[in-house]
Amino acid sequence: MKHVLLILCWLGLALIGQAQNDAVITFHKGRTQVGVNEDGRLQINVPPKEMRKFKETGWVQYSDFGAKGDGKTDDIDAIAATHAFANAQKLPVKADDNATYYIGGKPRTAIIKTDTYFGKAAFIIDDTNVERIGAAVFMVSSEKLPFKPEGVSSLRKNQAKLGLTFPSPCLIAVVNANVKQYIRFGPNQNNGSPQTDIFVVDKNGVVDMNAPIIWDFDEVTSITALPIDEAPLKITGGVFTTIANKAESKYTYYSRNIAIRRSNVTVDGLMHYVTGEGDQGAPYSGFIEIKDCSYVTVKNTVLTGRKTYTTIGSAGKPVSMGTYDIAVNRALNVSFINCTQTNDINDTRYWGIMGSNFGKNLLYDGCALSRFDAHQGVANATIRNSTLGHMGINAIGTGIFILENSTIFSRNIINLRPDYGSTWQGELIIRNCVFKPIAGKSFNTSLINGNYSGQHDFGYVCYMPERITIENLKIDDANDSDDYKGPALFADFNPQMKDASYQEKFPYIKTKEVILRNTTTTSGKPLRISDNLFMFKDVRILEH
Hints:
By secondary structure, the chain is mostly beta strands. It contains 3 helices and 39 strands. The chain folds into 3 domains: about 1-105, no CATH class; about 170-225, no CATH class; about 235-445 and about 465-475 and about 510-544.
């Protein structure tokens, strides 16, 4: 009797058809079927007998909805249908362990809203003939819908409360379209991005000060609240192989990926490989792309650096295109734990694996990856117990940057990106690390790199870290060159600034204090402040 009542309830919900994630689900007698109707939407039928079986089993599998898993048949419709049904019934999804799912180029996205166990299954994502390059293969999404709060016309840096109440904790994204920041300089120059910030509030509108508001907003032209899911969602396992596109090498980014748009998500044990990269190809925006969410952890995951291709940049000069396997955009509290990559982290044929914009509280822990990068700013970042490869650490932002118990293979320990003003408004802490300049190329080795002419308006005041603390750093700078002077703390940020006659239109706020404790070099040469003694003459060096 209980089963009959349940079925009647399900049928009652489904009599007029149930639209779910670009799908219409019905519950008629017969067999489970997946089709595509005239407007391109999935048409799914699940008979009551099968419904009862799925409920009793407690999960659904791709094979239940017609996936062949033979590595040849395009299974994306069956995969998307499985998730659509699972989302409607709040059931987990399990891939078939021995299956190889082929996913072709049709613009179908499987929406994930329940725990998903990819397990030992293999997935082949064929990008050689893609109909819509921006269509994610999987999108992790929330049942909760974003909304527009009213009554916020301006904001102040470090503001503690919004003066509003919310139905649940929310991620808040604010924009002032009338102010431009991150006005990029160099070969990829642009006119900047609208002033943007993201932060978390509780039900009472109290801002989480672990990731505070970092800008003054004299005007708020757009504000969006994205409710944060309290229940965690887990994605585990899966061996994914992308057959790379062979499109023209220009900035037409492919997003054939797993796009995470829900807060409180863990990805565990996933593997991603890339094959078929040739003489040309368009860049990728990240196989794991985390955006507009908070509290996301990627762990025990293996990724792949993408081959570097060149194109003509906005300044009319050849540039190498950034192409990523990890992307973090407008996201908070994102952690990468025990993550590695399939190719050599020091192989310069491959672009650095990670890029981010508008992030806060980013973490690498126990990772061996070719790059950490914050383009349009990060507020607070930590790298610990990790190894960074040939592209090292590239960052601009605010707050505290902590690097500890790690090894860096790069030209510098940290590169403050010159194209965004070489700015870090806050503190830099380096503890218990080893710095190994790439392949022993120690000539003009510097720990902190950047470039700032003072002649370009980036849309904000540019800072060097106010305080830099370096403890127990070993610099492996063995070099037999007679010209080698020993490592410098700072690169020559402005070779034209030789004396007080040089005038900056947009003054650079320089480091006030450097604390050095137990810094050693393999070469035996002492750490120098910089080749540009005038620029850094007022920096106070405290050695212990």
